[in-house]
Amino acid sequence: MKGPEALERLAAHLSGELGRSPHTVRGYLADLRSLVAHLDEHGHELADLDVPLIRAWLSRARASGASRSTIARRVAAVRALTRYLHREGILPVDPGPRLATPTQRRSLPTVLDEEQAAEALAAVDPETPVELRRHAIVELLYATGIRVAELCALDLADLDRTRDTVRVLGKGDKERTVPVGGPALDAVEAWTRRGRPHLVGHGSANALFLGARGGRLGVRQAREDVHTHLREAGLDGAPHGLRHSAATHLLNGGADLRSVQEFLGHASPRSTQIYTHVSVDRLRDAYSQAHPRA
After folding, report:
1. Which one, 127, 179, 235, 256, has the greatest CB density within 10 A?
2. Cβ within 8 Å of residue 18, ≥6 positions away
């Protein structure tokens, strides 16, 4: 099986059978095209893949300045490929499990403190449809901690005002229900009542947030809305920063790590543990109050 055909089949397998997101599939294919080119350059085919060949490809990327996260992504991509090729009988042995993933240096998330978050949400008096959309997006992202792509995928029916919740379709098509506070629900209602009708078009369907041409709001525009809103409030931030802030403030307010994991839609508690550093002040206060030798 030639490289392009194998990658095409792998893409169908990843998206159709494994439910990987389009973003993940695109990233994997970009990396694997580089691997196929490397094999062609050295007179090899996919059927020749083994640990030394893969390590040589990774070493070249590392020598050219690729970051640890890039190398880790390449390892994940090639593991998906070798697993598939082994399943199809093209590789007699899967070399993927023998590849080591580089340890990630996880940076601490940038967050707004509670006062900055309050300033960001109180700094505007939205009037135009775009202003109403921006305000609703920022309120909802901070209130729920959902990802910007999850926000853009929301439909009108996903918000339940009787239960104060929003239904979210997350990574791996996993659905979760997230609580929403009153201010965010009010901002979304103002958008749907006073802003959304001005942008409705043939492509609107049931999308909650709409772009300028009436279709579902894209991730890029949603990010720009957040940047613009925070900039006008005199703050610097991004959608993922609002997600970090929501998780941070929940922990500082006394929520347990397991609840925050469910709230954020993390499959593993390890993804949530990055936020535990923000609770040091709360832990220190509790220590001072409770420990007899504090």
Report:
1. 235
2. none
